[in-house]
Amino acid sequence: MVIYHLPALLNESIAGLNLRPEGIYVDVTFGGGGHSRAILDQLTSGRLIAFDQDTDAAANTITDEQFTLLNQNFRYLKNNLRFLGITAINGLIADLGVSFHQFDEQERGFSFRSDAELDMRMNRNAQVKASDILRTYEEEKLADVFYKYGELTNSRKLASAIVKARTTRPVKTVSDLMAALSGLFPSWEENKFYARLFQSLRIEVNHEMEALTEMLQQALELLKPGGRLAVITYHSLEDRLVKNFIRTGNFEGESDKDFYGNVTAPLRAVNRKVIVPTEEEIAENSRSRSARLRIAEKL
Questions:
Q1: What is the pLDDT of residue 264?
Q2: What's this model's pTM, rounded to 2 decimal places?
Q3: What's the CATH fold of domain 107-206?
């Protein structure tokens, strides 16, 4: 049996939502449906709305009158809920990153471990693939993507090598990209290097950081006082953004203060220390190793 996805930190994130049996909840990253099923198990008269922009996720839909799956990007959270007549929610969960299915389907181009076209679209109806970015972006813009989203310090050399390579043949596949960048990183750091490089391209293709900031702002508006937000991140860029938002209500991490100098924030961190997988979970699911869970409650 092929597993679509194993949800990371499942028990911890569901417990963090502090579920009410009659509440209205949102799972903005449905995927294989692991978190959604766990939420539905605790609802009686409540309701769960799930989002996933990847049409493949529809194969995992749940037959339950309390459940609705929307084939939508979570950046359109508020408008889609309004269409369903929902203006306030009791909790929201987001398990960010790439599903097992997306990584393991070779033709999706998310993994550097198999040769395929560099696609990386979460939404297969989107127009721009990673190969299009490598083909059309100017050198400076490519370097910015690698530095900003992959934190690669030799981003300018990488961009220059790609621009040079594409003058003779397209940099369209995983093997094309590897050939263009040969010798530009230490051999013992190959996996780490390509993980960061592919991360940067994937984030750019799917506008992930913009979508995340828009979703979090809308989630804050929708949450009822006492409502919970649970977000699982997989790299430092996401985690820093979520941490700042929970701590200060903005993404810069700059605290607002009232007339008396007291810090004001719309959310309260439920877990003061970020929650990480146990050694047992990592042994069962090695891909959960980089997962980081933050939980907040609306004041």
A1: 79
A2: 0.95
A3: DNA polymerase; domain 1 (1.10.150)
